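Structure first, sequence second, as always.
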């Protein structure tokens, strides 16, 4: 880390000496190991170590700031200086913009409590351990009744260190790690085959699910999809499994992204302080959630994000903002900037989730005479400007409050504004992803079938 810190300091120092009015540097050093097999035979074993530096410079101009970004994976002093000279030259030819700036000292976080986030585990994993995890998961899957094959079983381990410095005095770093086991199963034969998956991902090795349980989970999801039927076109209540319901949180995150609001290219751009969900629905975004997959001690501009109430009793309360979008909207950043090594910061959610309701899954469906339980949705059928929603889907038919037979080859459609207002949340929230929601029921959606 000290080597990376020295390289970042050198980069900032040379940028200022070369004429930049301001600059920031991000260095990410990462290690990744992955193993993949099929029916017990290794397919790929990959290991990589990378270290990349991204430099962004600002040049004063009468019309604002001229900005450019360049990245390099060569952190030797001579190359750093050459990289800085290159990015300075590029900035001279860029258009000026008054909305870009660095966080000032009174805005950025000074003492991040990285340890409390619990996003780094130093136990690691060897190739042999990854192989054992994948093999145990695949074996349990193949031994399950009804499974005829697998597509793959894989496992991986990664860890990274991120260093960020700015010419305004921000200088901090943090580490993160990730462990993964996944299996994709196949059931049936010929044209009657079905496939599904299960997986576990965690920052800490001890938080991974048992590999055998993952294999059995993939088998169970797959076998229950066998012999699907088609259904008629109709309007009925649709219940969304948590694997799908989280997408609605993602749709909301995109619609309240500050960059979209600035352009008025969101179906929610005029909905601030208005009710867009039922009164009992609350949605939060929390970058400081311990072990959260989207947790971070500070954002890509050095600002510490606090827990945000996105939706309070159904009312929209805030946008997701970085410095640039906040300035364009006359607001303050709420610490949601995200960036890559060679990209400008942009707004992004962290750990965004819908609070669970007061009704169990069983009670949610028991009063449904006819309906659909959706376990898979696919396609790019969400229009962020109009809110129109149309997705391919598969799942299970609900008859008199009971899941009966699998269904496939259907399309579900509606408009997100109407869908949001007509949803009911179960009490089974599980923080498995960076965007999470409980099982959701939405009344009166259209199913396009036969």
């Amino acid at each position: 880390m000290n080597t990376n810190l020295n390289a970042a300091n050198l980069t900032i120092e040379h940028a200022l000496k070369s004429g930049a009015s301001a600059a920031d540097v991000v260095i990410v050093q990462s290690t990744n190991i992955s193993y993949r097999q099929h029916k017990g035979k290794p397919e790929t074993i990959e290991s990589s170590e990378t270290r990349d530096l991204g430099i962004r410079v600002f040049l004063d101009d009468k019309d604002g700031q001229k900005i450019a970004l360049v990245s390099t994976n060569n952190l030797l002093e001579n190359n750093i200086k050459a990289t800085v000279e290159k990015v300075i030259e590029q900035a001279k030819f860029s258009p000026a913009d008054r909305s870009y700036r660095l966080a000032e000292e009174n805005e950025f976080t000074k003492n991040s409590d990285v340890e409390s986030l619990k996003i780094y585990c130093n136990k690691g994993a060897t190739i042999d351990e990854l192989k054992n995890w994948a093999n145990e998961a695949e074996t349990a899957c193949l031994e399950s009744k009804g499974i005829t094959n697998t597509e793959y079983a894989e496992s991986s381990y990664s860890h990274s260190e991120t260093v960020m410095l700015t010419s305004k005095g921000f200088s901090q770093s943090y580490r993160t790690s990730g462990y993964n086991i996944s299996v994709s199963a196949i059931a049936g034969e010929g044209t009657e085959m079905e496939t599904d998956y299960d997986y576990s991902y965690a920052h800490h090795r001890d938080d991974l699910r048992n590999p055998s349980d993952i294999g059995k989970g993939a088998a169970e999801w797959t076998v229950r999809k066998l012999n699907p039927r088609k259904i008629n076109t109709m309007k009925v209540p649709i219940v969304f499994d948590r694997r799908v319901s989280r997408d609605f949180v993602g749709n909301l995150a995109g619609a309240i992204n500050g960059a979209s609001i600035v352009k008025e290219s969101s179906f929610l751009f005029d909905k601030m302080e208005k009710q867009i969900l039922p009164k009992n629905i609350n949605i939060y975004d929390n970058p400081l959630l311990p072990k959260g997959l989207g947790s971070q001690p500070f954002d890509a501009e050095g600002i510490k994000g606090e827990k945000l109430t996105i939706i309070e009793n159904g009312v929209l309360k805030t946008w997701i903002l970085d410095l640039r979008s906040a300035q364009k909207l006359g607001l303050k950043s709420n610490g949601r900037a995200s960036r890559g090594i060679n990209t400008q910061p942009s707004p992004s959610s962290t750990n965004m989730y819908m609070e669970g309701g007061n009704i169990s899954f069983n009670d949610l469906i028991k009063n449904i005479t006819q309906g659909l339980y959706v376990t898979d949705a696919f396609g790019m059928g969400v229009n962020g400007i109009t809110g129109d929603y149309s997705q391919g889907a598969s799942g299970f038919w609900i008859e008199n409050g009971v899941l009966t037979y699998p269904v496939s080859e259907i399309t579900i459609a509606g408009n997100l504004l109407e869908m949001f207002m007509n949803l009911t949340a179960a009490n089974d929230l599980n923080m498995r992803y960076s965007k999470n929601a409980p099982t959701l029921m939405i009344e009166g959606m259209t199913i396009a079938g036969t």
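Margin note: The chain has a mean pLDDT of 96.
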